[in-house]
Structure formats: structure tokens, C-alpha cells
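Kindly inspect this today.
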Amino acid sequence: MFHIAITQGHCAMRSKFNPFPAPKKGKSRMVLKRPASQKTKAKSWQNVPYTRGAADVGPRGLRMDQTKWKRSLPDILHATDKGIVQMLMQDGLLPDWRGKTCPRCEKGKLRGWVQKPGDSSPKLRCNSRGCQVYFNPHHLHPLFTEGYGVAGSPLQTQAALLLLKINNIPNSTIHRLMHVNHKAIEDLDKRLALLRKEYVEEKEKEIVFGNGAAWQDVEADETTFDKKTITDVSELGNTKKPIEWEQWCGIVQRGKPESLVLHRLKPVRTDARAPGPGAVRKVEWRPLADHWLKNRKVVLHTDSAKSYRVRVAGVLHDRVVHCKKRVKVRGKWKWQAPRYVKVVEHKLPGTNKKIRVKAGTQVIDRCWRFLKERLSLNQNTKAGSSLLRSKLRSAQYQYWYKNADMWVATGSLCQWAAKRLMGKK
């Protein structure tokens, strides 16, 4: 009898668990998803994968504790002056200037490696009679800096700083580990962000969603990164709406993180107590959908924002509800839990074929979390600032190559910058 009373009391307490708003992570969300566990046991649910087709990484994911990059910190710090140059050239982080035209006189050719009196590091030297200038191997490098005396830093130290930065180590931690001035670390961080921004903005134009043959799953969503209060009266205009938001829209194909496309939105200003700028507007989503998705044979998965309902040729659309709803069941009002993922059946246009897919925005939601974890908001990176856009593009670059060796990817990035420099020269 006592056991039955405890069980009934436990069930009563369990039925009262009804948090609002609906949590999106943690134990609370796990409890809310428990009714859906009956659905996951059905074969109709298990037979429909969330990511259809071949993915770059299996369902197990990429285990960073079992992954090795090409170089480690001891390899860089223990290298000699000539050895670090050869290592960085082999990895693509340093261009080979030997035999190239001298950037100073533009007449002679650079020969190396030569030893400058009083300097142990290898140098390049122009063979022109009127020039004869010595150059460092990292001359005109987009990431590494040149300097002499107190202002100079060995190439081993700069390469070690770069390795720590691409591992997302905080600047304060790098300062304690390497005993390097924080200004040098911040300067490298800014150089890396600007270089990645230029690369992403150029390569993003080449992204194509879908293959034109089979229907592919694409997710789209918007998010807000920061806000600021406009205090300038001449710029403010409407004094009742002083809040300006940094809002971006993202589109990504499932199973292909390198297909992430970001677009900066221009939301209207809000009052001081507004929780956010709202969903993407229809006037901003229509051009994006026509540019990236039109006639590409994609199944677009979004949330329930009304802007995504626009009809686009070659696009099938489904949506999920991310908020709780109060519905009437048998004459009683009850809260219906949100459905983050559900199975949807689409009929292909022009045929009688049907495909079953899982609707949801799980990939793009994890992408927003990935980007926000790599953004450090401070007094210099505020809404509307160019530095915030550079760091966001840098995080987008990291998302593209999150399953690759970032050291090798940075070498390819430096090679791209060197080819562009050689073309200008």
C-alpha cells in the first residue's frame, strides 16, 4: 500500500513537470523528449536517416582525442633556424622565394640560402649589383611578422603561436604558456581573421547546393550574435527604437559542412526591452533563396517563420515547430511539446515518386553553437564592427575544415595568399 502511494505520488510529480519556455538542452529537454521515444522504436522512423547520402564523417563523429595533426608543439619549438624554414615550406606556410624576382628592385633574382653576418637565420639575397638586399624567408607574409632586436620574434615562436591559435587556445592562456606580449598575440589573431575572411568571401561564391540529379537536404535559419545601443541623436532618428542587432542568415547542406553560406541581414531597430530582432524578413529571404536554391532540387528544412514559406522553383519545403503550443484535447487545454525532428513525405514535382525525409534544423543549430563558441565579444567586436564580421568569417572557415587537419588547411590558406601576391607582383 505504501509502495503504491509513493508510485502514485511520483507519477503526479512527474506529470507536473512542464517548464516554459521549452528547454533546448540538458536534462529538462531529455525529459520532454521521452514521449517521442515510442516513435523512435518504429521502423518507419529508423529507416529514414537524418542525413541522406554519404557524409564526410560517420555517425560516430570525429574524436579529437584520437586525431593527430601533421605538426605538434615540440616539433616546432625544437626545430633549428634552418629546420623551421624547411618545415614551414614543406607544409605550405612559407612560399619559396628562391629564383623569384626581387620585390625591392624588380630586376634581380633572389638566391638562397645565404648567411648574413651577425644573424643565424637563413636569408635570401638579391643578385642584382645595385640591390644586394637580404630578405627573410617570411618576407611579406600575411601572418608572420619581421623585426629586429626587442621587436623581433623567432620564426619558431611565431609558428608555435599560430599552432595554438588554430587550436582555439585563449590569448591569455597563450601569454602564460609562451611568455609573449599580448599585443603580438592579438596582432596574429587579427591577421589570421582577416586572411580567413578574404578567403571565405572569395570561395563562398563557388558553393553550389545539390547536384542537380538527386534531391538533397538543405537547412536554413537565422541567429543574432550581438546588439548595441545607438546613442548618437543624428544617427538614431527614432528615439523609441535605439537597439541595433547583428543578425545573420545561414544555409548549409546536410553532410557537407564546407557548404555553409552566411549572409548578414539588416533587421529593423527595436526598443530597449525587445528580446530580439525577430525572424528573417521576406524581402531579405527571397533574394537569398533565388540565388542559392532556385532550380537546385533541394528539400529545404526550416523553422516555422513565415518568411520561409515563399515558393521557389525546384525547392520542396518543410518546417518544424520550436515552441510549445497550447492545444485543446478532449475539452481540456494542454501544452504540446515542440517537435524538433519529424518524418515528412514529399511528392516529387512532375512525377509520382515520393521521398521520406526527416524535417528539422539540427545541423544549422549546431553550426550556430560552433560559431558562437569561437567568437569573443568585447569592446572592439561590437554589433556593426568590421572586426566582428572578420571573426565570424574566421569561424565560418573553421566550420568548413572542422573535420580536416587545420595546420595543413592553414598551409593551403597561406599558399592561396602567396599566389595572389605573386599575381599582383
